[in-house]
Specification:
By secondary structure, the protein is mainly alpha-helical. The mean pLDDT is 92. It is 69% helix and 0% strand. It is elongated, with a radius of gyration of 19 Å. The chain folds into two domains: 8-56, Orthogonal Bundle (Arc Repressor Mutant, subunit A); 66-195, Tetracycline Repressor, domain 2 (Orthogonal Bundle).
Length: 199
């Protein structure tokens, strides 16, 4: 390989940081923790990523492009019931995966926070609200195409599925088994089945 090799693998460092933040949250992960998991001195981490907050934001973006990208993919399904069911099934698969922290990084990384970290929390809140809106938008599209009955409250239904999605994260974090989480998807689908045209 020509040229001087890089002193460290930035991508690997970002992956290790992502896992630490996912497991322990933003405030629960110190710079000392990040130094330990990446094997890089804090000065090198700052040089590569700018700040702990910048590293965290990049780690969340990595999560959303990888492990957390299931939601966007599921909602592309042509049939709305398939889309929502796949969303919940894939959430359970990701949130309970062996060798990974349990739950959703965007839900668990900042449940509580100190005042000086409010900007990080607002940023995470915006990500969660965007996910909720993407579910509402998918249901709205289904209603406009005739797949859901006229008069269906798609906002309430979307908020419900966002609450189920976030609840799955909390349950997974609490150690509820994959089989139990998968078992709740059937009952959770009942409101959507009732709203389907021709139901």
């Amino acid at each position: 390989m020509a040229g001087r090799p890089r002193e460290f693998d930035r991508d690997l460092a970002l992956q290790q940081a992502m896992l630490a933040f996912w497991q322990h949250g933003y405030e629960g992960t110190s710079m000392a923790d990040l130094v330990a998991v990446t094997g890089l001195a804090s000065a090198r981490l700052y040089a590569a990523f700018g700040s702990k907050e910048a590293l965290f934001r990049e780690a969340v973006e990595r999560y959303e492009a990888g492990d957390g990208g299931f939601a966007q993919a599921a909602l592309q399904s042509a049939d709305v019931r398939t889309a929502v069911e796949k969303l919940l099934q894939d959430a359970v698969a990701v949130y309970t995966r062996r060798g990974r922290p349990q739950g959703c990084m965007v839900v668990t990384a900042a449940a509580n926070y100190a005042a000086d970290n409010e900007s990080v929390m607002r940023w995470l809140t915006s990500h969660r609200k965007a996910r909720t809106q993407s579910i509402i938008d998918r249901l709205d599209a289904a209603q406009r195409s005739g797949a859901l009955k006229p008069g269906t409250d798609v906002q309430a239904l979307g908020d419900y599925y966002a609450a189920v999605l976030h609840g799955l994260s909390v349950q997974a974090r609490d150690g509820v088994s994959r089989s139990r989480l998968l078992a709740l998807i059937g009952p959770a689908m009942a409101p959507l089945a009732a709203a389907a045209s021709g139901a």
